[in-house]
Amino acid sequence: MPSVAVPSDTAHVTAYGRSADSYGLYKPWDRTSGSIRLYVACFDPGGAPVKTPFFAAYTSAF
Which residues pair with 54 in a beta bridge? Predict the structure, then answer.
């Protein structure tokens, strides 16, 4: 797919499953040579970091 990782672009992260954990991007994404790197952080309801499933979506315009 040509022209991936070019502005204007957007990324979103959301939880899936039955957990009460929360998710988000903890810093801006990196664009490098047509690829993208997302930085996702997941936390339990008490604020402790956890490893749990999530869904990430990214789109870019070209």
Answer: 15
Query: Within 13 Å, how many C-alpha atoms sit on residue 1's CB side?
Result: 9
* pTM exceeds 0.90 for this model: no
Answer whether 42's CB lies under 8 Å from 25's CB: no
CB 62 within 8 A of CB 7: no
Three-state DSSP at 52 gives coil
Q: Which residues contact 1 (CB under 8 A, 6 or more apart)?
A: none
CB 58 within 8 A of CB 8: no
DSSP state of 49: B
**Run of H or E including 14:** strand 9-15
pLDDT tens for each residue of 17-30 = 778 888 889 898 88
